[in-house]
Amino acid sequence: MSSIGDIASSYYDFNSIYGNTPATNTTSADKLVNTLDNINVENASDEELLEACKSFEAYFIEQVLKEAKKTIKDEDEEENQYIEYFGDTMIQQCAEMISDRGELGIAQTLYESMKRNGM
Length: 119
Known about the structure:
This protein starts with a helix and ends with a helix. The radius of gyration is 16 Å and the shape is elongated. The chain has five helices and no strands.
């Protein structure tokens, strides 16, 4: 049986294969992999398991936001060096805030599924 960290690693591999640069994904992907690798799902407390699910949800939201950002870029608009430099950090923070609010329910659904299936 593969660990949750292996699953998260495959997401990172997917991003590197399909053209996202590791420099923009390394922080959030590594954070997710470290979170998932450091818990033993069978013996994890409910708080640890829910935190891992929230980390996955934040990473997922971040990837969705990055892809959405690509679709709205205006060629006539002048590049802002600060947005270019801090844009990924801003997206990462937004994703964490969205996940913390719990309105999407991805983390909660994943958590309930893991508890029900005894992972």
